[in-house]
Amino acid sequence: MKARVHVMLKDGVLDPQGEAVRHALGSLGFDEARGVRQGKVIELDLEDGTSEARIGEMCEKLLANTVIESYRIEIL
């Protein structure tokens, strides 16, 4: 089975990479981009029957820094 984990900075946490992308978009004439948040997507190839709770443990212990990041699990 496959799962996808979407990790994003929590609201209120500064995102310098997102701000750099927003600035670059403006420089290229894309002024409609008012804000950009950058995150990461992690695809996992797992043994069949791996529970979402188990994937959550992976996120809590390694895949996301839960102090400043939130995550969402998508089972494919």
Automatic annotation (TrEMBL):
Keyword Cytoplasm (UniProt): yes
GO molecular function: ATP binding; phosphoribosylformylglycinamidine synthase activity
Top-rank taxon, per record: Bacteria
InterPro entries, per database record: PurS, PurS-like_sf
Gene3D superfamilies in the cross-refs: Phosphoribosylformylglycinamidine synthase subunit PurS
Pathway, per record: Purine metabolism; IMP biosynthesis via de novo pathway; 5-amino-1-(5-phospho-D-ribosyl)imidazole from N(2)-formyl-N(1)-(5-phospho-D-ribosyl)glycinamide: step 1/2
EC number: 6.3.5.3
Statement: the UniProt record of this protein carries the keyword Ligase: yes
Main location (coarse class): cytoplasm
Compartmental location: Cytoplasm
Function as written in the Swiss-Prot or TrEMBL entry: Part of the phosphoribosylformylglycinamidine synthase complex involved in the purines biosynthetic pathway. Catalyzes the ATP-dependent conversion of formylglycinamide ribonucleotide (FGAR) and glutamine to yield formylglycinamidine ribonucleotide (FGAM) and glutamate. The FGAM synthase complex is composed of three subunits. PurQ produces an ammonia molecule by converting glutamine to glutamate. PurL transfers the ammonia molecule to FGAR to form FGAM in an ATP-dependent manner.
A Pfam family matched in the record: PurS
Reactions listed under catalytic activity: N(2)-formyl-N(1)-(5-phospho-beta-D-ribosyl)glycinamide + L-glutamine + ATP + H2O = 2-formamido-N(1)-(5-O-phospho-beta-D-ribosyl)acetamidine + L-glutamate + ADP + phosphate + H(+)
UniProtKB keywords: ATP-binding, Cytoplasm, Ligase, Nucleotide-binding, Purine biosynthesis
GO CC, one annotated term: cytoplasm
Family the entry assigns: Belongs to the PurS family.
Organism: Palleronia pelagia
Assembly mode: Part of the FGAM synthase complex composed of 1 PurL, 1 PurQ and 2 PurS subunits.
GO BP annotations listed: 'de novo' IMP biosynthetic process
Top EC category: ligase
Protein name: Phosphoribosylformylglycinamidine synthase subunit PurS
